[in-house]
Amino acid sequence: MPEIIHVMVGALSDARGRIVVSKRPDHVHQGGLWEFPGGKLESGESPAAGLKRELAEELGIQVRASRPLIRVHHDYGDRHVLLDVHRVDDYAGIPHGREGQPLDWLTPGDMDPAAFPAADRPIITALRLPTLMLITGEDPRQPEAFLARLRDALDAGVRLVQLRAHDLSASDYASLAQAAFELCERQGAQLLLNRDPAEVAHIARHGLHLASPTLMALATRPGRSNDLVGASCHDPRQLARAVELGLDYALLSPVKPTATHPEADPLGWRAFSDWVDPLPLPVYALGGLTADDLNEAVQHGAQGIAAIRGLWPAS
Ligand SMILES: Nc1nc2c([nH]c(=O)n2[C@H]2C[C@H](O)[C@@H](COP(=O)(O)OP(=O)(O)OP(=O)(O)O)O2)c(=O)[nH]1
């Protein structure tokens, strides 16, 4: 088993939500590429202390508050790294390249993954995704009331919506999706269609969400190249399949007991974090959760929370 190099990495943003990136010198490993500031944890050092030290050395700032974003294991062939990435929520000082390295500030949507080391792809995806995913609730058979509730959720700040309406016919689903897409576009939110990918091939959307049987039946990643694609998973086999297909995110459920699936055994946070930790993709926690569980979810390695009841506004 090769030694794992534990690297502390910071995602630090300005008031406009742009993230600071720095250029690696040409002569080092992954040289000439852009990276998120950070460096190797020293022996005997805690991760929090390592993050503070690296960002003070490289950017001249003092970290005041941070939270986990994602952990990425990556095997480069000649070395195996664990990128332990934290979002820096508060810091003192003005970031500058203390080691003479060029800095840039980029919105996550403008980051070109090819300009970063291969291990950084899931970090860029995690930065692009919000911490809350709304899965739409009932009742899509009354489209006006349904869309009014969706509008309320968007007004309240939801920025990622999964349109789940299995009871609708293909044509009713297509009309609802078109109206939901327009609402989401207006608010800068992303709409994911949870439906057979072939059936929704021509419907406007920002991405696709796959039910777990669809995930297991597909041989390749579905959709267009710019679709955000994720899947519902309930066990490590399904999570591994989401990684094999190169999906952008997964949902893992049920974390807690839920009214919609009373027969399913809840995973609990311990199994959630054990299963998610080795995976190079952001995973939302789902099942019996509300926005109040967000901090606990993030501390257990989640991208955030996905919820139906917990986020769908009351009628
Ligand atoms: N900081 C950082 N390192 C990354 C990223 N992506 C990525 O693959 N790495 C890899 C490259 C290196 O193999 C390793 C970081 O090691 P480093 O050489 O930058 O660490 P360091 O600052 O402690 O450097 P040194 O004192 O050993 O010279 O992690 C990233 O986004 N940020």
Structural account:
With 315 residues, the chain is α/β, with parallel strands linked by helices. It has two domains: 4-114, Nucleoside Triphosphate Pyrophosphohydrolase; 132-307, TIM Barrel (Alpha-Beta Barrel), CATH 3.20.20. The chain is built from eight helices and 15 strands. The protein has helices at 47-59, 121-128, 143-155, 170-187, 212-217, 236-244, 268-276, 294-299, and strands at 4-12, 19-23, 34-35, 38-40, 62-75, 80-92, 103-106, 132-135, 160-164, 190-194, 207-210, 228-233, 249-252, 283-286, 304-307. The strands form three sheets. It has an eight-stranded parallel barrel with strand order 8-9-10-11-12-13-14-15. Strands 4-1-6-5 form a four-stranded mixed sheet, with helices on both faces. A three-stranded antiparallel sheet has the order 3-2-7, with no helix packed on it. Strand 5 (62-75) and strand 6 form a beta hairpin. Helix 3 runs parallel beside helix 4 (170-187). The radius of gyration is 20 Å and the shape is globular. The relative contact order is 0.11. It binds 8-OXO-2'-deoxyguanosine-5'-triphosphate. 8-OXO-2'-deoxyguanosine-5'-triphosphate binds next to strand 1, strand 4 and strand 6.
Concise overview:
The chain has 315 residues and is α/β, with parallel strands linked by helices.
